[in-house]
Specification:
This protein has 439 residues and is α/β, with parallel strands linked by helices. The chain folds into two domains: 14-293, Spore Coat Polysaccharide Biosynthesis Protein SpsA, Chain A; 319-438, UDP N-Acetylglucosamine Acyltransferase, domain 1. It is 20% helix and 25% strand. The chain is built from ten helices and 31 strands. The strands form eight sheets. Strands 5-4-1-6-11-8-12 form a seven-stranded mixed beta sheet. It has a six-stranded mixed beta sheet with strand order 18-21-24-27-31-30. Mean pLDDT is 89; it is low at 1-16 and 424-439.
């Protein structure tokens, strides 16, 4: 583990008050990525709007970190297929903060105020909203991503930033050397000062000064002094050869002129192993959901000291009906959200979003079921993700024969089947069997 750098506080002084610590900081949350690697789940929705853990969306994790850290002024930059994301933020998050105190969680779609283009990179997305950022007159700007699963107190990062006298602080995570091709690698001195960057190298000789078997990698979380960020964005916008990316361009270009420090990730998840997940692929997304449904999850959704918030929908409680031999409504090692009815069916190792109905004699194992899904009688579902509004006819079998599944569904190389509502049979919705006349 990394020792504290010079001047770094040993602990976060909660007695000083979270609002006081973060009151001069503006959060800018990047939520406009197309999420190609999560296709087909991102065909009709933005990646941060993809459901997670039953009742949540991926973006809820980062927004909960903001609220729990006392960061109550947040701009969310959206772009692709943002309708459901915009609605989720408007209905679930706009009232969480105290607007009368100047707090807000606000969506900023591309307005082409300073450019005629869509966002061309992470830095360009922030640059195109430079007037909105400047109008708030923050002392610091915290750049965040809306598509990672982790728990982090940004207030601790800000305290180190101020104590070290840094112009820029970036959050780092220690990874194995064989993982570097997926990350931006950071060259960090023993003092904590950043000496260089290598973006997604095939390999690297760099090692963490605090753990010589590990490498320091960027988490894509950047804390800037505003008077450093805005000029850097303007210079980058004028460079026709730039990729307009923080990791590729902004940070390397200011390295020689400003004081940049690394902040080693402090996990608020309170587990032995640090938890940070990029759920950017279907298999990674699936594994993260299976974890939260397990008996002893690594990522704890039930930690009252670090609550995960979301938009609350008005559904009745979940219900389990029938207890006959071979027809018992049950769920084991599973998350079952509000509005679900498990009618004489067996659920194992699965995650169900709101308003899911699983009818008699069906078996669902190791699967993720999004909202408003109706699974008919005598279905067998295994290792599948069922997208919202899907209606599976009686006797449907998914996840047992990959070749058969590929005829109608999307199947990953690992054999995970993703079912969307394109399938022609879904035009014939299945009547639920929990009504008295169906018995």
């Amino acid at each position: 583990m990394r020792g504290p750098s010079p001047g770094r506080p040993k602990r976060f002084h909660k007695t000083r008050g979270w609002r006081a610590v973060m009151k001069d900081t503006l959060g800018v949350l990047l939520a406009g990525g197309a999420g190609e690697r999560l296709f087909p789940l991102t065909r009709d929705r933005a990646k941060p709007a993809v459901p997670f853990g039953g009742q949540y969306r991926i973006i809820d994790i980062t927004l909960s970190n903001c609220i729990n850290s006392g960061l109550h002024r947040v701009y969310i930059l959206t772009q692709y297929k943002a309708l459901s994301l915009n609605r989720h933020i408007r209905e679930g998050w706009s009232t969480v903060v105290a607007q009368e105190l100047g707090e807000f969680i606000e969506i900023l779609p591309p307005m082409q105020r300073v450019s005629a283009n869509w966002y061309m990179g992470t830095a360009d997305a922030v640059y195109q909203n430079i007037y909105s950022i400047g109008s708030e007159q923050p002392k610091h700007v915290l750049i965040l991503s809306g598509d990672h699963i982790y728990k982090m107190d940004y207030g601790k990062m800000l305290e180190q930033h101020n104590a070290s006298g840094a112009d820029v602080t970036l959050a780092t995570l220690q990874i194995r050397p064989d993982e570097v091709s997926r990350f931006g690698v950071v060259d960090v001195a023993r003092s904590g000062e950043v000496q260089g960057f290598v973006e997604k190298p095939k390999s690297t000789h760099l090692r963490s000064p605090w753990n010589p078997s590990m490498v320091d990698a960027s988490m894509g979380i950047y804390l800037f002094n505003t008077d450093v960020l805005l000029p850097a964005l303007m210079r980058d916008a004028e460079d026709p050869h730039s990729k307009h990316d923080f990791g590729h361009n902004i940070l390397p270009n200011i390295l020689e002129r400003y004081k940049i420090y690394a902040y080693n990730f402090v996990d608020e998840n309170k587990q032995e192993a640090l938890y940070w997940r990029d759920v950017g692929t279907l298999d990674a997304f699936y594994d993260a959901n299976m974890d939260v449904a397990s008996v002893s999850p690594i990522f704890n959704l039930y930690d009252k000291s670090w609550p995960i918030r979301t938009r609350v929908r008005q559904y009745p409680p979940a219900k389990f009906v029938f207890g006959e031999p071979g027809r018992t409504g049950s769920a084991v090692n599973s998350i079952v959200s509000a509005g679900c009815i498990i009618s004489g069916a067996a659920m194992r190792n699965s995650v169900l979003s709101q308003d899911v109905r699983v009818n008699s004699y069906s078996e669902v194992d190791s699967s993720i079921i999004f909202s408003h899904v109706n699974i008919g009688r005598h279905c067998r579902i295994r290792r599948a993700i069922i997208d919202r509004d899907v209606h599976l006819p009686e006797g449907t079998v998914i996840g047992f024969d990959p070749e058969e599944d590929r005829k109608n569904h999307f199947v990953t190389p690992s054999g995970l089947t993703v079912v969307t509502r394109d399938y022609s049979l879904y035009e014939n919705p299945v009547a639920p069997d929990f009504m008295p006349e169906q018995n």
